[in-house]
Amino acid sequence: MLALNPQIKTYLHTDPIDMRKSFDGLFGIIKSDLHLDVRDGGVFMFLNLRRNRIKLMYWDRDGIAIWMKRLETSSGTSQSIEFCSNSSASFMGSLIF
Predict the structure, then answer these.
(1) Are the C-beta atoms of residues 44 and 30 closer than 8 Å to each other?
(2) Domain count for the chain
(3) pTM higher than the cut 0.85
(4) How far apart are CA 26 and CA 94, in angstroms?
């Protein structure tokens, strides 16, 4: 279970990424594409092309942390991550499965 404070800024990288990227690769995307620094706070969200995997990267007091989830199929139906148009912050609540 992942619970985040709703006051934390959440940033969504809109282009799909290669999920093999880890700390250095995601850090580089945040710097080059979003012009931000993960150490300044906030949660950075990344999706794969099929939108069935999500990675979150954030600063956790003394280091950078990555959280990843892979959605599995159940009962023959596939799942994908969808977003509301109002804000990605409201989506964070649906990550608590």
Answers:
(1) yes
(2) 1
(3) no
(4) 23
Residue 49, Cβ neighbours under 10 Å: how many?
A: 11
C-alpha neighbours within 13 Å on the C-beta side of residue 11 = 18
pLDDT tens readout for residues 43-76: 999 999 988 899 999 998 899 999 999 887 655 5
Instruction: Tell me the three state secondary structure of residue 68.
Output: strand
Residue 41 lies in a domain: yes
Cα–Cα distance for residue pair 53/32, rounded to 1 Å: 22
Annotate 18-48 with DSSP letters as a single string: -TT--HHHHHHHHHHHS---GGGS-EEEEE-
By residue range, what is the domain housing residue 45? 10-80
CA-to-CA distance for 58 and 10, rounded, in angstroms? 10
How far, CA to CA in Å, does 17 sit from each of 5, 6, 11, 38, 48? 26, 25, 14, 17, 5
